[in-house]
Amino acid sequence: MTAEPDLRIHFLDHLIPRATPGDYRVVVKNTLSDPDGDLDARDKLLPSEETFEIKAVRFVLSEASVHAHYPPRESTGAYTRTLPHITLSRSILPWERNLAGTRAEQPPARPPWLALLVFGENELPDDPAASGDTVLRTVEELRNPAEAGVKGPNLPSGGVDEAEARSKCQTIDVPADLFNAVAPRDDEMYYLAHVRKVVDANKTRADGEVLEEGEYAVVNANRFPHNPGNYAVHLVSLEGFEGRLSGTLPGGTTAVRLCSLHSWSFTSSEGPAADPGALLENLVAPGAEDPEALALRLPVTAPVTDDPEDDYVRERLALGYTAVPHLTLSGERTFAWYRGPATPVTAFDVPTEHSPGPHTTSDHALVYEPEHGIFDVSYAVAWTLGRTIGLADPEYTTAVSRARRELANRATTLMALAADPARASVDPDAPPALGALRELASAGFRERLSTGLKSPQLPDDAGRRTPQPRMTRAQSRSVLAEERAVSLLRTTAERNAGAIAAWQARLGLLQGVPFHHLVPDPRMLPLESLRMFRLDQGWLDALVAGAADVGVHTSVDSRLAPELDRATARSGRAKRVAGGLLIHSELIPAWPDIQVNAYLEDGTVLTELRRAKPDKRILLVLWDGVPDKVVIREPGQGIHYGIDAGNRLGLRSLAADPPIGTPLETYYPATGSLFDLHLRSDPDAGPAVLQMFGTGGLVPALAQEFGLPDLDPGQLALELVNAPLEQEILSPTGTAARTETT
After folding, report:
1. Residue 373: left if φ>0, alpha if ψ -120 to 50, beta else—which one?
2. Which of 215, 298, 683, 742 could form a disulfide with 91 if both were Cys (CB 3.0 to 4.6 A apart)?
3. What are phi and psi of 268, to 5 degrees?
4. pLDDT per position as a tens digit, 387-416
């Protein structure tokens, strides 16, 4: 699968300024001329002269100039194949000062004067813990160290004035042997910096930097943090070290003093998380041979027999059930079948007409198999669990109790009014005396009042209402089925339905459900496994019904419960979960922001309804549909550099066809490891520093791979961009699962 780009980046070789820092003098001379030649105007038009100075960063770098760096400061991760880098907001900064190169065939461009050096623990005397510590010294102490054998930069005479010499900067002393081992060579400097032009971005990358539109300078390190431990990264100035980057220093040199413009530290971890690509491939490997191996069910290892009872058990296990202890009402101890909401097959619809509810026990949800004398307690457990979760939440129980009491009070009022036809038409929600006020404001009230006052007085027994016979309970309750009563009850139920519906919607997404109810047996989801499943809608309905039946205490509550349930359903209308995925792997802590996308066969993207981590190594993802394809992708962490899974480079196009940057689905080297071919020394015996040129040089080897005479810095940066790992899981009707890098 080729993922749609979420940003567009151009890699440029360099950005050369028009003028370097220094003092400049501009002289303007005026010349007058006519068709016969120049006129002598020396006394009238005197020359004009101006001097100015161009300044640039040299010994101190503002924090505002640092846009980002990778790995993140004080982070811990699997960085063994990563080349640290720093992104500078001033795109011209690495080329503002002149650092002459010595490579004869080097293009007409200026190598950067900055380099990014990586140091491990116990390598720098002043920073044995590799915390990124530096020593504050004056520029004069940087140039001319007082310690014997320590060499500073050979800056041009007169290039540092007296005030600048007294200013202070951050410095590090690097042992001579270590400097020779990790410092880039003169001919490599040109390839360790480039310009990144970002288009259509403004997106925050997980655990990385904010990629904003614009141009940025990027300086790459040349050392891999191959061995586990702490590492310090320093952005240093190599101005004044021209000619000393050949791997040998002047005799008697014990250490080199460098100006550190910016530093940070990180930890390169070890263990299974050090190779997320292998973990990801291992997760889906069982599905390549048998897609059903990725279904959430207990594995069956017993041999097949002719026993029908064995066939029955195998069938139950294939449907996702597991056996659980069961205590019958008569006190017998036996076992029952249980299956959680996550099933490997599509579950049948559960008939509810025979037991519409509400209920006060879970007996209605028990399923009995008379042929084998075994109960299926799945739905009974779901109902009990929903009721338990509801009762454990005081806010929910308060909302449900309030709704039921208001409904009961309304129903009682309607039944009481039903015995009096004159009062039955009164709106119970109307404020007191509102009917009398309406009578006073009605038309003709004045005339009726005047006529009544003028009429003769009636006997005491005249005008009295005839006593109505007392209504039976059945007659009074029948009033609740009348259209006016139904409307009033619906209005009352809807007052509290919103909060109840929102809570039940969260429960429908399995929030608050203990994990052992989802995966009842740990063997269903062992470490380093991935399982796909469907959701049993009957189980979810029973779960929500258990919570919905909370607070039913009287016969009136029982009669009015359907009205509250209908109001809750009208207020909810949330999407129902239909499919999901579980991953139990060291990959989850290694990739905390792992991307998991689901698609239907026609390309429709399913909505992710919930993502949770029941454990630090377990990921649960739920969708609103059953996917035909799931794509698991390494989380975006900005742009970082290094080599890909298998210690190889996933090559990208450098030509127009296919477009530049398109993954070619080929790797370099074709076999073996880049660590075996292009490091200065054995990474187990010394620093894992990339060899750019000479014997084992990466640049000429990659150029030959593409049939080019040479590579530019931008081209090399493009090839070193870490390709995010991507894994497709297709439905059994599709092709086999495969791992891709894009």
Report:
1. left
2. 215
3. -90, 120
4. 999 999 999 999 999 998 988 888 888 877
List the structure tokens of 172: 């590090």
Residue range 607-644, pLDDT digits in tens:
999 999 999 999 999 999 999 999 988 765 567 888 88
Q: Name the helix (H) or strand (E) containing 658.
A: none
Q: Pick the closest to residue 351 from 538, 490, 148, 590 (CA basis).
A: 538
3-class SS shares of the chain: helix, strand, coil, % to 5: 30, 25, 45
State pTM to two decimals: 0.66
| Dihedral over Cα of 20, 21, 25, 26: its sign | positive
Average pLDDT, integer, range 280-306 = 86
* 3 state SS for 158-211: CCCCHHHHHCEEEEEEEEHHHHHHHCCCCCCHHHCEEEEEEECCCEECCCCCEE
Consecutive H or E run containing 59: none
How far is it, in rounded angstroms, from Cα 288 to Cα 26? 73
Q: What are the φ and ψ backbone dihedral angles of 97, each rounded to 5 degrees?
A: -110, 155
Segments in 183-302 forming alpha helices (H) = 276-289
Q: How far is CA 143 from the centre of its chain?
A: 47
For the chain, percent of residues with pLDDT exceeding 90: 38
Using an 8 Å Cβ cutoff, are 610 and 543 in contact?
Answer: no
Q: What is the mean pLDDT of residues 681-699?
A: 87
Place of tokens 């309607």: 414
- Which phi and psi (to 5°) does residue 724 adopt? -65, 140
Three-state DSSP at 257 gives strand
First to last CA, the chain: 8
Asked if 536 and 578 count as a contact pair (C-beta separation under 8 A), the reply is no
SS3 291: helix
Token pair, residue 144, equals 């001319």
Distances in Å between the alpha carbon of 35 and those of 30, 39, 382? 17, 10, 105
Q: Which residue has the tokens 């054995």?
A: 682
Buried b / exposed e over 96-133, threshold 16 CB at 10 Å, is: bbebebeeeebeeebbbbbbbbbbbbebbeebeebebb
- Say whether 138 sits in a helix, a strand or coil: strand
247 CB-near residues (< 8 Å, 6+ apart): 180, 185
Q: How many whole angstroms separate alpha carbon 544 and alpha carbon 51?
A: 82
Tokens representing residue 551 in the block: 């607070």
Neighbours of 650 (CB within 10 A): 23
The answer to whether the Cα torsion of 306, 308, 312, 315 is positive or negative is positive
Specify whether the CB–CB gap between 497 and 570 falls below 8 A.
yes
- As a whole number of angstroms, the longest Cα–Cα distance in the chain is 140
In the chain, DSSP finds a helix count (H) and a strand count (E) of 19, 37
